[in-house]
Design a protein that fits this description.
mainly beta; 4-stranded antiparallel β-sheet
Length: 113
């Protein structure tokens, strides 16, 4: 059974950074796209970043160079480095795996002064 476990969320001030991690168990995800989505209260879940097996990333339009997604296939882990965080980045961040299609339980990121 595939499990995705996120960590690294928390409360930060505007302009600060956070690094999210997502560890996958029960599968070797080296041949699958993985990434991050987020969902703010009252809004639809949206793509933050995803990275395919070759390492090519795709980002949501709002990222604008602030976030970096990376993967360590040896550790079955995907990371999201978030810099220059804004209050509008506040959301629950979910780890996502394309194949087999799976979601993590989510980790809260709150950006507030």
């Amino acid at each position: 059974q595939v499990q995705l476990v996120e960590s690294g969320g928390g409360l930060v001030q505007p302009g600060e950074s956070l690094r999210l991690s997502c560890a996958a168990s029960g599968i070797d995800f080296s041949n699958s796209a993985v990434g991050w989505f987020r969902q703010a209260p009252g809004k639809q879940r949206e793509l933050v970043a995803r990275i395919i097996s070759s390492g090519v990333p795709t980002y949501g339009d709002f990222v604008k160079g602030r976030f970096t997604v990376s993967r360590d296939s040896a550790k079955n882990t995907v990371y999201l480095q978030m810099n220059s965080l804004k209050p509008e980045d506040t959301a629950v961040y979910y780890c996502w795996l394309a194949f087999p299609y799976s979601w993590g339980q989510g980790t809260q990121v709150t950006v507030s002064s």
